[in-house]
Design brief:
Blueprint lengths: L1 H4 L20 H16 L2 E5 L6 H11 L5 E6 L6 H11 L8 H14 L3 E6 L7 H12 L7 E7 L1 H7 L5 H5 L1 E6 L5 H14 L9 H11 L3 H18 L6 H11 L3
Parallel strand pairs: 1-4, 1-5, 2-3, 3-4
Helix pairs in contact: 4-5, 4-6, 9-10, 10-12, 11-12
Length: about 260
């Protein structure tokens, strides 16, 4: 592997790096500030972004700083299930055995939340895959909350979710959303900083990637972090195979010629 070749102690562009490897900038800080407000006062929050833009990284940062003595966090990602199956998953996540019938399961969820001495936070990933009936069920749950119950829902998904929520049938749910945050691709400057940051975190030197190489990686990937990870990793592998320790513009072009599908 390229780690020894570049004297790295870890893979710099791994999919799930340590929490302190997640590069923060003004965009990330704005998102976290909004999520902190949601944590304190909101009922529903919405994070939108195409795949690979860093929604999971933002969630990790938010949940890492969440006061665990005040929140009972439940992560749900099987969003493509039908509405009844999704309710069964919610009930199971709360530690209960699902009963028969939607009404009974909704009551189970509300009763279990009432018994919890912490605020219950449902983090629903891939929420763009949720059925309309599931969104209606979530609206029913939030509408049933009073001062004695503490429930928050964080929806995280692709752009399709935003369009779905704009339908008149989901107007009540949309109006209850405290925070809506849209993830954006990295700028060229941030892509450059991101590559250098990850390399140094892995024990390498910033000079491994030349400036023109980093600029070109941004152009090829559009600043999408997951794609930057993939291309930068491919460049490191290619360089190690050629016995060179500098990633140049020419090497990036060569790598992309082999990397792209025909």
């Amino acid at each position: 592997m390229f780690l020894d070749h570049f004297s790295l102690h870890s893979h710099p562009f791994a999919e799930n790096p340590p929490i302190d490897w997640l590069l923060r900038d003004e965009h990330t800080d704005r998102a976290l500030a909004g999520l902190e407000f949601f944590q304190q006062q909101g009922a529903i929050a919405l994070i939108i972004g195409q795949t690979g833009l860093g929604k999971s990284s933002l969630l990790r940062l938010f949940l890492h700083d969440l006061p665990h003595n005040r929140f009972h966090t439940l992560y749900l990602h099987l969003s493509a299930l039908n509405a009844n199956a999704f309710l069964r998953v919610m009930v199971t996540k709360l530690g209960e055995k699902p009963q028969m019938g939607k009404d009974r399961m909704l009551l189970q969820i509300l009763e279990r939340i009432h018994q919890n001495d912490k605020c219950t936070l449902f983090v629903i990933d891939e929420a763009h895959l949720l059925e309309p009936k599931t969104l209606t069920d979530l609206r029913v749950l939030i509408s049933s909350i009073d001062e004695k119950l503490s429930l928050k829902i964080l929806l995280c998904g692709q752009e399709k979710l935003s369009q779905t929520l704009k339908r008149s049938s989901h107007a009540d749910l949309l109006h209850r959303i405290t925070l809506q945050f849209v993830m954006r691709p990295m700028s060229k400057a941030k892509t450059n900083a991101y590559i250098d940051f990850r390399i140094t975190k892995a024990g390498g030197q910033e000079k491994i990637f030349e400036q023109t190489a980093k600029d070109l990686i941004h152009d090829y990937t559009g600043g999408v972090p997951r794609q930057v990870n993939n291309v930068a990793t491919a460049c490191l592998l290619n360089a190690a195979g050629q016995g060179t320790k500098i990633i140049t513009e020419a090497l990036v072009n060569q790598t992309m010629a082999e990397f792209l599908l025909p």
